[in-house]
Design brief:
- This protein has 221 residues and is mainly α.
- It has a domain of 125 residues.
- Helices cover 82% and strands 0% of the residues.
- It has eight helices and no strands.
- Helix 2 runs parallel beside helix 4 and helix 4 runs antiparallel to helix 6.
- It is globular, with a radius of gyration of 20 Å.
- The N and C termini lie far apart (47 Å).
- The N terminus is likely disordered.
């Protein structure tokens, strides 16, 4: 009886955990198909570039940099409008490369700049998540090293994207950008999450949602 009564409560949580990866997988597969079969179609361009542009806009807006958020939309809209008018988007492949490299360069800067500022990003996130436990010197050192590892990861993936774009057919590059990169990102994240408690069992267990809340609140305070 008790197990039956607990099931309805667990089901929404499981669905909530499954929804992001399922939606991400659907988006990545759709982007791959569109980039291979209709790369120059305006809807493909909007579908592929839209989430990154809107995500950047939302991040800037929520951080209080609303002028920069509006300038981002104006710059992207003007650039795409100009390409449509003067070139008809004859070759949109550099657009997709530019989007990928811009995202990974921004993430590299975000993590790397936090190291130079003396407040590593993951250290700040860990302090926000584990508010009831003070981080030990070993935990501080580990989170700083992990911040550096993420910065190097994003930089390496961005450079690899440039190299593959120059050397491989576009279809193979699209496979790297749309399928391999998300899988590598998820593997890096999950692998570190699993190894963290083996290397540092003193870390308090934290849920994915706690990490997500800390990430959203990273610019506050």
């Amino acid at each position: 009886m008790s197990s039956v009564s607990q099931t309805p409560g667990r089901l929404p949580m499981r669905l909530a955990l499954l929804a992001p990866p399922v939606l991400m997988a659907g988006y990545c597969l759709s982007a791959q198909w569109l980039m291979l079969h209709a790369p120059r179609h305006p809807l493909t361009v909007a579908f592929v570039l839209g989430p990154a542009v809107l995500g950047g806009f939302a991040a800037l807006w929520n951080a209080g940099r609303r002028v920069w958020a509006l300038l981002l939309l104006a710059a992207v809209g003007g650039a795409l409008g100009g390409l449509f008018v003067w070139h008809g988007l004859r070759d949109v492949r550099p657009l997709y490369l530019a989007e990928y490299v811009t995202i990974y360069s921004a993430l590299t800067w975000l993590f790397g700049h936090s190291l130079r500022s003396g407040a590593p990003l993951i250290t700040r996130l860990a302090r926000s998540i584990h508010q009831t436990h003070q981080l030990t010197p070993e935990m501080e050192r580990y989170t700083a090293q992990l911040t550096r590892a993420w910065a190097l990861y994003f930089a390496g993936m961005g450079l690899l994207a440039l190299l593959l774009f120059a050397l491989l057919p576009f279809g193979w590059w699209a496979l790297y950008a749309n399928i391999i990169s998300p899988l590598a990102l998820g593997s890096f994240f999950l692998g570190e999450h699993l190894l963290r408690y083996r290397w540092h069992p003193e870390f308090e267990r934290a849920s994915f949602w706690a990490s997500a809340r800390a990430w959203r609140q990273r610019g506050q305070g």
